[in-house]
Design goal:
By secondary structure, the chain is of the alpha/beta class. The protein has helices spanning about 10-20, 25-40, 50-65, 110-115, 155-165, 180-185, 220-230, 250, 275-290, 305-320, 335-345, 350-370, 385-395, 400-405, 410-415, 440-455; strands at about 45-50, 75-80, 120-125, 170-175, 190, 210-215, 260-265, 295, 375, 415-425, 430-435. Strands 1-3-2-4-6-5-10-11-9-7-8 form an 11-stranded mixed sheet, with helices on both faces. The radius of gyration is 21 Å and the shape is globular. The mean pLDDT is about 95.
């Protein structure tokens, strides 16, 4: 089998499996061999499940022989972040003391991936508790583009594995930017769905009202297909939405004619690295040429909302870990202990104030969406940092706030966001931008994302 099939798209490989050009078993074995060969250098997988994956692949091939297809992901190998429960395997959430804690049943998103025909290769590393830093006992995954670059947080393994061709797509989670940071750092696509669009049942929490689960892929159409597989109401998660789930893959091909794209030029250029600002300006031009209407906007002030996010996240993280912290505090790093202690110290009045601030900012953003359908914006002001530069940033008192300043505001509002790669710099640093939409309008994001992807044409993979 050609080695380049590892870098093909999930939907593309799904078509080849469906047409019998290849089989799920062949593709799955190819990726398992690739993981065995390459992942010792990347370190993206926390757990590989070769026997289980091949068994699933055989079952998917058998179904095709009987004329049954479960959809575009039938037989396609993917992986999930190690926040997601899988029966009989540990869910560590990036915390080593949980390695002996085995799940009794699958998370809803895992069940839905399987129901859509996907083959699950294993579970991917993440930062401690899905916050910013990896536990000292966990070696951070290596960015496949450049080993000294940050691989992103918290879905670091998901970003690295997907970029390295060690799966055709993965699941990540985003509380302050944790789908978007690793997608941007590794030069891939990520969707943070609307809060409630995807069930969180069976997924370890960082912050219940901020957590979002979504797909990370190399192409927009693949993210659309994965989102379609996992989205929808789940009785086991009462916060999940009953809003109808469109066919995102079909919808993504509709083009952008008539879409109104909001562009705050100052926000997208002042203090923003030139490659990022240039990529956004070029995207605006390309989308306009395809029929989108670009409207000048001014994004609402967000400093208060960013500060409120920090309060809410810390309090809800303390709640999420209440059963084990401080009772088993020795199992947590000093950094994560400090974060949980800060959350436990917040007063009810301060938490209420943060919640009100959050709602006000959501209202301000809703006013912008009365005039536009999408907003284009940077993910970060600067380029992807090196590992050492990221460590220095996190050591600063306001380091986390700086990191999430352009991402966490959309976790607070629950807005859907699509991260798009734009290219790689001369010194091999990936860069891109984000598109923000109205609640439950992920299909609109996919339309714009696919239109940009097709017009821009950048498609490059790490040389591994």
């Amino acid at each position: 089998m050609s080695s380049d099939i590892a870098y093909q798209g999930a939907v593309e490989v799904g078509r080849k499996i469906a047409s019998r050009e290849t089989s799920s078993v062949e593709v799955t074995q190819h990726l398992l061999d690739r993981i065995a060969r390459i992942d010792p250098r990347i370190g993206s997988y926390a757990l590989v499940l070769p026997e289980q994956a091949l068994s699933e692949a055989k079952a998917r091939d058998a179904e095709l022989k009987k004329g049954r297809s479960r959809g575009p992901l039938h037989g396609v190998p993917v992986a999930v972040k190690d926040l997601c429960d899988m029966t009989g395997t540990p869910t560590t959430a990036g915390i080593p003391m949980f390695r002996t804690r085995k799940a009794k049943k699958d998370a809803t998103v895992v069940t839905r991936l399987r129901d859509a025909g996907a083959v699950i290769l294993g579970k991917l590393h993440l930062t401690e508790g899905a916050l910013a830093l990896h536990h000292p006992e966990v070696k951070p995954p290596v960015n496949p583009w450049r080993k000294d670059l940050w691989s992103g947080a918290s879905s670091s393994g998901s970003g690295a594995a997907t970029a390295a061709g060690l799966c055709y797509g993965s699941l990540g989670s985003d509380t302050g930017g944790s789908i978007r940071f690793p997608s941007n750092a590794n030069g891939i696509v990520g969707i943070k769905p609307t809060w409630g669009r995807v069930s969180r049942n069976g997924v370890a929490a960082l912050s219940d009202t901020l957590d979002h689960i979504g797909p990370m892929t190399r192409r927009v159409e693949d993210a659309a297909a994965m989102l379609g597989a996992i989205a929808g109401r789940d009785a086991a998660d009462p916060t999940s939405s009953a809003a109808p789930v469109p066919d995102y893959l079909v919808a993504s091909a509709a083009g952008v004619k008539g879409l109104r794209i909001g562009y705050d030029e100052a926000y997208c250029s002042e203090g923003v690295a030139k490659p990022i600002a240039g990529a956004i300006a070029e995207a605006v031009k390309l989308l306009r040429e395809q029929g989108a209407e670009v409207k000048a906007i001014k994004l609402p002030p967000s400093d208060a909302a960013i500060a409120a996010w920090g309060v809410i996240c810390a309090v809800e993280a303390a709640m999420a870990h209440d059963a084990t912290y401080p009772a088993k505090k020795e199992g947590y790093s000093m950094v994560f202990r400090g974060f949980l202690d800060a959350g436990r110290a917040v007063s009810g009045v301060d938490y209420a104030r943060a919640t009100v601030t959050r709602r006000k900012h959501a209202g301000d953003l809703a006013e912008v969406f009365e005039e536009v359908d999408l907003i284009i914006a940077p993910i970060t002001a600067g380029m992807v940092p090196t590992v050492s530069a990221f460590d220095r940033l996190c050591a600063e008192p306001d380091g986390l706030t700086k990191l999430v300043s352009r991402t966490c505001i959309y976790d607070s509002t629950g807005s859907p966001v699509l991260t798009i790669p734009s290219g790689i710099s001369k010194d091999h640093v990936p860069f891109g931008f984000q598109l923000v939409g109205r609640a439950f309008e992920e299909a609109t994001l996919c339309r714009a994302g696919l239109a940009y992807q097709n017009a821009h044409g950048w498609r490059q993979n790490p040389d591994l």
